[in-house]
Write a structure and sequence with these properties.
mainly alpha; elongated; single chain; 116 residues; binds zinc ion
Length: 116
Amino acid sequence: MGCGNKTDGAAPDQTRPSCLDCVEKHLGAALVLLSELREGYRYRLLIIGHLHEAAEESQAWPDISRHIRAARRRFQASGAVPDFAAIGKMIEDSRAKTRKPPAEPPRVPLTPEVEP
Ligand SMILES: [Zn+2]
């Protein structure tokens, strides 16, 4: 499930809400678990699950979603560690593209009007 944020990308055929914050959350969880893999291999399924969730919740950004899905498949097949830095950069770039300009500040006089 998503966090309740509305999708800020466009994907009419997506199966669930897309949210870059949630994508980062799942990628971060996968990264933490990967760092603990040396202690054993019991996190394999959790890592696969988080990468799957990240791919699902990034469907509004097809390039990011495809990249994460491919990374998940490589990890599943060979244990290859995903390039988290590259994915993080894609998310950052996507955010920069969709960021709206700041709202105009309200027009207020610089000096208070004095009653005569
Ligand atoms: Zn979210």
